[in-house]
Amino acid sequence: MSVRRSRRSARVVCYDDVAPIALMPRRGCVAVLRRRGTGELSVDNERNEWLRETLREFLVRNRSYVTTAEAMLLHRNTIQYRVAQAMELCAGSFDDPDAVFRVQVALEICRWMAPAVLAAPK
Question: Which of 32, 84, 98, 120 makes a 20 to 30 Å CA pair with 43?
């Protein structure tokens, strides 16, 4: 078993953390939301996993490069680079609040339901 797989399967989860995803009616609905929100970022590979994690932390921390860098123990420039790459893969824009919301929901779906909802690498 890979380290990545074992890390995913050994989680204890509070309902409050997953409630929005748990309330979604069908897996098909989840897949559509994930695909629309993350686009190519939802491909299951290690690089995209880092980018998804970085973008999620960045959005949770009110789009602050400094606080995201501190939380992830990375340099601010690394966060800026990863966020730019992630948003390019999502084809998202921080100027559109609806797009940001879709990305946030999709990132939570990827976080809690991976690898089941991730796209296979090409």
Answer: 98
